[in-house]
Design a protein that fits this description.
Layout lengths: L2 E8 L3 E7 L57 E7 L3 H8 L1 H8 L3 E7 L12 E2 L9 E2 L1 H11 L4 E12 L2 H8 L3 E5 L16 E4 L9 H12 L8 H5 L18 E2 L2 E2 L2 H4 L3 H19 L1 H4 L6 H14 L4
Parallel strand pairs: 1-4, 3-4, 3-8, 7-8, 7-9
Antiparallel strand pairs: 1-2, 5-6, 10-11
The structure holds S-adenosylmethionine.
């Protein structure tokens, strides 16, 4: 396994680390295709352009544009700044496997900042008790605001993780992957002072449950987003996976052809590429119909898809 130098940057220290790069990943090289299915396309808040009273707020670029990259020689597709009280939590997951390789390739530069750098007083305080009383501590707004003021630039997109945020999705991942600079804010404790919501472009939730902090949501978002960057992984992989086209993925098989008496579908071993394509589309529709019919609601269908769905429905509801 080759050893490669990886730059891991934090705001409190800047060091070069040597990591082992796995040679087993599929290589990229081609641009990832963006399929036409855009239902549920995320929308950033209406905070574009004029600052509405929040000095320093950046203009957020329209979907699909990389304004700070266009026409420059800079090869980094996406820069991400993460604000956290626990930088170590991000280190391992972003250094190994595919995220590590994407960073080694220079497609993404990820800087993890210790929010205490902007903490208050000699103790670098970042939290305080809640007004009105109650359990826990609340993160003060000044350190987060100061960090945003320092890191934000034209074209930045600021994200606050919060259970009350918009639900993160593959559509959101595509949106964020098309941007040039993300700043991810990872609160802890009872969350951050509510006035910080007005300083960010979007609040994102990764699901209806409560984690101890925004670091795991940040990792989920970073992992999902950077694999979509052009050249990160085989474009066919991201074009033909669950949610890419508004459907769940078709079943996948590998050797052996028979496993504990269960055989691989004959179509997949028959060598007829047209038949394989049609089988996969039919099975993707079947799986989506069975497990996530909500994904089909309102999704435009091709003539072939309509016919296949009709077949599948008549299989499950004979006589309908
Ligand atoms: C313990 S939680 C605070 C929960 C908050 N008091 C509430 O009831 O909504 C601390 C932080 O973890 C992050 N967090 C927890 N669950 C999350 C989720 N499902 N999605 C995104 N961020 C989450 C948020 O940044 C949150 O402010």
């Amino acid at each position: 396994m080759p050893s490669v130098a990886v730059r891991w940057v934090t705001s409190t220290c800047r060091r070069d680390e040597t990591l082992s790069a796995s040679s087993t990943h599929r290589t990229g090289g081609s641009s990832s295709t963006r399929r036409g299915w855009t239902s549920g396309r995320p929308r950033l808040r209406g905070r574009l352009g004029s600052d509405g009273g929040h000095a320093g707020r950046a203009t957020v670029p329209a979907l699909g544009h990389r304004p700070s990259r266009a026409g420059t020689a800079d090869p980094v597709a996406l820069e991400i700044d993460v604000l956290t009280l626990f930088p170590d939590m991000l280190d391992g997951p972003l250094s190994g496997s595919i995220p590590g390789r994407i960073r080694e390739q220079g497609l993404a530069e990820i800087r993890v900042h210790d929010l205490r750098r902007w903490g208050l007083g000699k103790h670098r305080s970042v939290d305080d008790t809640p007004y009105g009383g109650g359990a826990g501590m609340v993160m003060r707004p000044e350190p987060v605001a100061a960090a945003l003021d320092e890191l934000r630039r034209p074209g930045s997109t600021t994200v606050l993780f919060d259970p009350a945020g918009e639900r993160f999705s593959q559509a959101w991942a595509h949106d964020l992957a098309a941007r040039s600079h993300l700043i991810l804010v990872c609160p802890r404790y009872e969350g951050v002072d509510d006035r910080i919501r007005a300083l960010v472009d979007v609040e994102l939730s990764i699901g209806d449950y409560v984690l101890t902090g925004g670091e795991l949501p940040a990792l989920v978002v970073i992992d999902t987003v950077i694999r979509l960057l052009p050249g990160a992984i085989d474009a066919a992989s991201t074009a033909e996976e669950s949610f890419a086209d508004g459907l769940l993925e078709y079943p996948q098989y590998t050797r052996p052809a028979t496993f504990r008496g269960s055989k691989v579908p004959a179509t997949l071993t028959g060598g007829d590429h047209g038949a394989v394509r049609r089988w996969r589309l039919r099975e993707a529709l079947r799986r989506t119909l069975e497990r996530r019919p909500d994904l089909l609601a309102g999704r435009p269908l091709t003539g072939e898809e309509s016919a296949l769905l009709e077949e599948l429905r008549s299989e499950t509801e004979p006589g309908s």
